[in-house]
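To assess whether ligand presence alters the predicted conformation, the chain was also submitted together with zinc ion. Input:
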Amino acid sequence: MAGHQHVGLLTDEALLHNIAHGCEDCFDLLFFRFFRPVLNMAFKIIRDRSEAEDVVQEVFLSIHEQRERFDPSVGTARTWVLQFGYYKSLKRRTYLWNRQFYAPHVDEDGDGRDPALVQPEFIQRSVEEKEIVEQGLASRIYTEKCRTERDHRTMPCFPQSRAASNYGVAAF
Ligand SMILES: [Zn+2]
């Protein structure tokens, strides 16, 4: 058990600090705090739900793998996390386009801008925008992916019921 409490509000930076020191509970908290803005961003860039969900998995795997590399003197934890989402979404979209998975098309939000081309503001907008996904998606993605043996070795899993009750999924 980690030598710190998980009650009350831990800042994003505190979570990453604790994750870097091996606390998987804090990783779970970080996931529940950020899965939705990361998914929103991925979906806006890729425009495909299942591909966006895959990107969310990639993002949190990378965060876990690189958990010791966050430097609070460079930027906020939120920016650090969302940049994984941004760049991995772009990478996936390029990959899909190259495979001609679907044709490039204009942004459908009505503002005529491609969200991938307006990064800083886009990140802010994505975080602040209303959710595009239903409640409970985080748990579903997480547990689905954790069923594979490979992910069990590389990514911590947790009982869904414990996560939902301890971390107040409905509250974020
Ligand atoms: Zn912790």
